[in-house]
Design a protein that fits this description.
Length: 404
């Protein structure tokens, strides 16, 4: 099977006798091949782990085209697929297939599309009892053009009407949804309702993960409640107005004192994560420039493997020029190298990554294992058309090495 191999940190002193500070000693986690891979070796999912999500749900109309059309073009699709979508609904479907008990708070209309979305979620084991069904209006839907040439997608979204309001969810329903929840997840689509839920979850000391896909209304109100943040490339710089990604991640952790870690995903280029040190890990150490540290990690990552890997620094004082200093660890994760002939559609890959992160948090995975696992799940999802078609189940042989 594939299994994680720990590469010991570098020694305190180099061969020339020069002292190497903690920030210059690193840990690598990679996977090596073995012949004993077995689904039977996969441990059971976390006992009674429940993830509650609040956010987007939609019907996706996916059409593949040979190339994206120019203005006034008339082209034909090469394939068509209609299936459920929406950030939160996709992420919770992923989490459910991985073995978590998933609950979703959202809103649909009492139309054929809304009924179809509920049926599809229920078939995947997602609890839809907290989804509000409007008697009138329309359910949200998205047109998605998938470019076969560039392997990119363009989304045109139509929101549901009437929109969800906090008053749509009764106090008793909210408390029932939060009952025994292990973690709460928001995609910031329904920000007013999300804020009400976040305040109650925080009061109950339930961890919160926020997907900051882009700057949205209500995001700044919701972020202070976040324990974990996952965001796409360029969001940290946009939100903090810090020019570099590493510096922006430090800025986010300094501005949001409750935040334990923040991950920025970069598609085929992998991901970057900064984790705040626990109080027990805080100690006096030499400051390390986070930009230089990242460059060192890039040189240490294994670029020869096709499967996801992770390299990390030791706990140290991370300094971002013009921003500040914090104690923590820097992680660099690689993405799966998908053969061009197997890459079909990247729609929902970020949602798959988040679904896997939710699972990893509930399962108590260390970051060194969580990042490659999440990258592998995202890679699986890119091999089929649509956000959910390729989402793997936890017994998928491709996931076994990351779960044992």
């Amino acid at each position: 099977m594939l299994c994680f191999t720990h590469v010991p940190p570098l020694p305190l002193f180099s061969t020339s006798g020069i002292y190497l500070p903690a920030s210059r000693r690193f840990t690598s986690f990679r996977i090596r091949m073995s012949s004993s891979s077995s689904i039977d070796s996969v441990p059971p999912p976390p006992d009674n782990a429940i993830v509650l999500g609040c956010g987007g749900i939609a019907v996706d109309f996916l059409a593949t085209v040979d190339s994206y059309p120019q203005a006034d073009d008339k082209i034909r699709s090469t394939s068509l697929k209609v299936q459920g979508g929406g950030n939160a609904a996709n992420a919770l479907t992923c989490a459910a297939r991985l073995g978590l008990n998933s609950r979703l708070i959202s809103k649909v209309a009492n139309d054929s599309q809304g009924k179809g979305m509920l049926e599809e979620l229920e078939a995947d084991g997602v609890d839809t009892s907290f989804i509000v069904v409007s008697k009138e209006g329309n359910s949200p839907f998205t047109y998605i053009l998938v470019d076969n040439q560039t392997k990119t997608r363009t989304c045109i979204h139509t929101p549901g009407d009437p929109p969800m309001l906090p008053t749509d969810l009764s106090q008793s329903s909210m408390l029932s949804a939060l009952d025994r929840a292990s973690i709460v997840y928001f995609d910031v689509r329904l920000h007013e309702t999300a804020l009400v839920i976040a305040k109650e979850a925080s009061r109950k000391k339930i961890p919160i993960l926020v997907d900051t896909e882009k700057k949205r209304d209500g995001l700044d109100d919701l972020l202070p409640f976040a324990d974990y943040v996952v965001c796409p490339e360029n969001f940290p710089q946009t939100w903090t107005e810090v020019s570099s990604t590493p510096g922006a991640l430090v800025s986010m952790l300094l501005r949001l004192p409750k935040l334990k870690f923040v991950i920025v995903t970069s598609g085929e280029h992998g991901c970057l994560m900064v984790q705040r040190a626990s109080k027990a890990e805080v100690f006096e150490s030499q400051e390390t420039d986070i930009e230089s540290l990242l460059e060192t990690l890039k040189h240490r990552k294994d670029s020869t493997t096709t499967f996801p890997t992770c390299v990390s620094s030791e706990t140290t004082k991370l300094k971002a020029n013009g921003v500040g200093t914090m104690t923590g660890r820097l992680f660099l994760g690689t993405a799966e190298k998908i053969p061009p002939e197997e890459l079909v559609d990247t729609t929902g890959a970020g949602d798959a990554f988040i679904g896997a992160v939710l699972y990893a948090i509930c399962a108590g995975m260390p970051p060194e294992k969580m990042l490659p696992f999440a990258a592998q799940v995202a890679g699986c999802s890119c091999r089929a058309l649509g956000a959910r078609t390729g989402l793997p189940h936890r017994t998928d042989p491709r996931l076994v090495p990351f779960l044992v």
